[in-house]
Amino acid sequence: MKPGSVAVVGAAETTKMGVIPDLSVIGLHADAALNAMADAGLKPSDIDGVATAGVSPTELAWYLGIKPNYADGTSVGGCSFMLHVRHAAAAIAAGHAKTILVTHGESGKSRVGAGRFGASPSSLAGQFEMPYGPVGPPSMFTVPVLRYLKTRGYTQEDLAHVAVVQREWAAKNPRATFKDPITVDDVMNSRMIAYPFRILMCCLVTDGGGALILTSADRAKDFPQKPVYVLGTGESVETPLVSQMYDSNSSTAFRISGKAAFEEAGIRHADVDHLMIYDAFAHLPLYGLEDLGFVKPGEAAAFIREGNTRAGGKLPLNTNGGGLSYMHSGMYGMYALQESVRQMRGIAPAQVPGAKISVCQGVGGMFGAAGTVIFGNEAP
């Protein structure tokens, strides 16, 4: 894909956010989709491509009355939507579709129409990890994180600093779930979940969703909203078993996807004005800063402690409040993409002044997959 040849022309989240007991999973997808269509001035008959995870693109297209030329059901966890953006951009560039809708919706809190938890007993995780007792992400992420903290010389307090800064950003966002300020002491005194994670280092559990609409750049200026251009993308997968990462101190998938996106966009790290790193748990921004190459291994904790990711810092990070304080219905990647788009449109609640390039990094599963999308507010 030529950098900037595809643009986001519609973007919206669900009408309500947080606790939505009156909508099922497919209802959340539809609500977000219709909001994104309204944002772009489109109707279902204008859409000729669909991409989604959590539900089938077959179900989504039929539910909305869309008859697509293109359908993508890639599902690799929370970064699925980064991959959908990448695939949609390639499909539009290849002429397979003109206007592609990407949707997300999850009833993470209310569980209306939601699937069951847990890995299948016949899966690799079911055979080789579940028998040893890990129950969900809080206890599974501890496997690499404990080694990472030891190797890097990081502490629990370093994880706490991530949560504190995220909350500072959330306080600026009217739609954030939690806005009250917290301190490192507050985080360190919050309830232990699975060492080293205390509850304020863990993601929210909410209901919600979002949707994006992409089209070719030569059509983008015909839409009512400011186009946000896709400059570069990358994707990778690593392992279904968190205990079998190639290196517990680094995400191979992060490094591969990030490198591909930067090379395609033709930018340097110094060109980046805004950064989103999927933060289901407080360790992920540390990994992301290092694996994407913004800092050297072992420098991420100090980079955050010194205020570089805060408002007014050199690299504003997770400006919506992140999965720790804004929203996290399960697959958080869509919310990160939405914030990158808002920043590039210049309409974010905590807008970074003059931001022109945003990097959005997602993770799927327990470091099992990664997707990177680089956005710009100007066509190259």
Give short descriptive properties of this protein:
nine-stranded mixed beta sheet; globular; alpha/beta; Peroxisomal Thiolase, Chain A, domain 1; 14 helices
Query: Which word captures the global form?
Result: globular
Helix/strand structural class = alpha/beta
Are there runs of 5+ residues with pLDDT below 50, and where?
none
Q: What is the CATH first-level class name? A: Alpha Beta
Strand order of the largest sheet: 3-2-4-7-1-8-11-10-9
SSE series: EHEHEHEHHHHHEEEHEHEHHHHEE
How many domains? 1
Strand content: 15-25%
Alpha-carbon Rg, integer: 19 Å
Helix content: 25-40%
Largest sheet: 9 strands, mixed
Total helical elements: 14
CATH superfamily: Thiolase/Chalcone synthase
| CATH architecture classification name | 3-Layer(aba) Sandwich
Overall mean pLDDT:
96
Short structural description:
This protein is α/β, with parallel strands linked by helices. The chain has helices at residues 25-40, 57-64, 80-94, 124-128, 137-140, 142-152, 156-170, 184-189, 217-220, 252-265, 284-291, 300-305, 322-325, 333-345, and strands spanning 6-13, 49-52, 70-72, 99-107, 192-194, 197-198, 207-216, 228-237, 274-277, 357-364, 369-376.
Describe the protein.
This protein has 380 residues and is an alpha/beta fold. It has one domain: Peroxisomal Thiolase, Chain A, domain 1 (3-Layer(aba) Sandwich), CATH 3.40.47. The chain is built from 14 helices and 11 strands. The protein has helices spanning 25-40, 57-64, 80-94, 124-128, 137-140, 142-152, 156-170, 184-189, 217-220, 252-265, 284-291, 300-305, 322-325, 333-345, and strands at residues 6-13, 49-52, 70-72, 99-107, 192-194, 197-198, 207-216, 228-237, 274-277, 357-364, 369-376. The chain has a 9-stranded mixed β-sheet with strand order 3-2-4-7-1-8-11-10-9, with helices on both faces. Strands 5-6 form a two-stranded antiparallel ribbon. β2, α2 and β3 (70-72) form a beta-alpha-beta unit. The longest helix has 16 residues, at 25-40.
